[in-house]
Amino acid sequence: MKTYRCSVSRVFNSAASRLRRTAARVMARALFGAVAMSMAGAACAAYPDRPITLVVAYAPGGAVDVVARILGRELSEALGQSVVVENKPGFAGNLGAQYVKRAAPDGYTLLMSPSTSYALISKLMGVQTVGYDLAKDFRPIAMVGELPIVLVASHTVAAKTLPEFVAMLKKEPGKIAYGSSGNGTIEHVVAEMFRLQEKVEIMHVPYRGAAPAMTDLMSGQIQMMFATAPTSLANIPTGRIHAIGVATAHRLPSLPDVPTLAEQGLPGFSAQAIYSVLAPAATPDAVITKLNTALQKLMDTQRVKDQFALQGVLPLRNTPAEAAQALRADVAKWDKAIDAAGITYTP
Predict the structure, then answer these.
(1) What is the pLDDT of residues 200-223, one digit of tens each?
(2) CA distance 144 to 167
(3) Closest Cα to residue 150, out of 67, 255, 305, 268?
(4) What sign results for the dihedral spanned by CA atoms 94, 152, 241, 170?
(5) Distance CA 150, CA 39 (A)
(6) pTM given for the model
(7) β-bridge pairing 83-87 and 52-56
(8) 244-257 tens-digit pLDDT
(9) Which residue in 92, 104, 108 sits closest to 57, CA to CA?
(10) pLDDT-derived band at 93, boundaries 50, 70, 90
(11) Cβ-based neighbours of 196, under 8 Å, separated by 6 or more
C-alpha cells in the first residue's frame, strides 16, 4: 500500500511539473509575441528611419523614370528621408520587378510600376517566365498617375477627325500602317482594340521603342499610331503629326482642343497606362498606410500637378484598397483585350 501511495505521488508530481513547464512555455511565447508586436509597432512608428529605394525597371530618361524622380524628390521632403531612384533595366522591365519582389518587405525597397505594361507582358509571356505574379507578389501603395493614349496621324494624312479617319481606313483596307513600341506593348494592344471596335483593317509595324516609331510616323513611312501623351505632346508642335482624338473619358488639359474618341462616335473606348507604386507583398499595413497618406497629399499639391502635366500625366488619388481593386480591374481589362485580338508574344 505504501508503494502504491509513492507511485501515485510520483505521478502527480510529474504531471504538475509538466504543467508548470507547459505554462512557462506558453507565458514565454506570449511574452515574446507581445515584445515582437511592440517592436514591430515601434519600427512602423519610426518608419522611415533610413533612405528608401524606389526602383525603376527601365533605363533613365523614359516617362516612368521621370515620374519616379518627381515622386522621389517630393517624398523625400514629405517623409524627411532620402528617396533614391535606382534604375534596374532589363528583360522588358521584369528584372527590376523580380528584384523588388525578393526585397525585404519593410518599406525600404519599392517599385515604380507602369502597371499596365506589367499586366500586358505578364499575360503575354506568362507568370513563370516573367518571374512574378503582379497581383500576388506585390501590394499596391497607390496608383499615382494616368498616362493617356492619343491617336495621332502623320502629316501625310488629310483626315483631321475620327469620322474622316475611319472613312479613309475603310476606303483603303489593309493599306494604312500603324506603329508601336513592339509586339504586345500598349500601343499595339490599343490599336488592335480600335481595329476590332471600328471593324477596319490596318497593318501593324512593330519597332524597338516609341522613338523610332514616331520618327517614321513624322516622315510618313507609317500613317498612324496610338502614342502615349508625353510622346504625342513632344512631337505635335512640329507640325509633322496631328492628333485625331484622345482615348480618355475627358479631354486632356494639355490638348484642350482635341476631342475624345468617345465624343467622336467611339463610345466606351478608353485606354491609358497606369503608374503605381508597389511594395513586396508582406509589407506591413502601417508602412503601406504611411506611404499612401504621403502620396495622396502630394497628388493634391499644385507643384506635383504642374510637374505631371509637363509629362502629360494625370495625377491620381486613391487608398491602398482602391489601388488594389483598380489594379485587378486593369489586369482583367488587358487580359480580355489581348484574348479578343488574338495577340501572342513574339520576342
Answers:
(1) 999 999 988 888 999 999 999 999
(2) 37
(3) 255
(4) positive
(5) 50
(6) 0.78
(7) parallel
(8) 999 988 888 889 99
(9) 92
(10) confident
(11) 340, 341
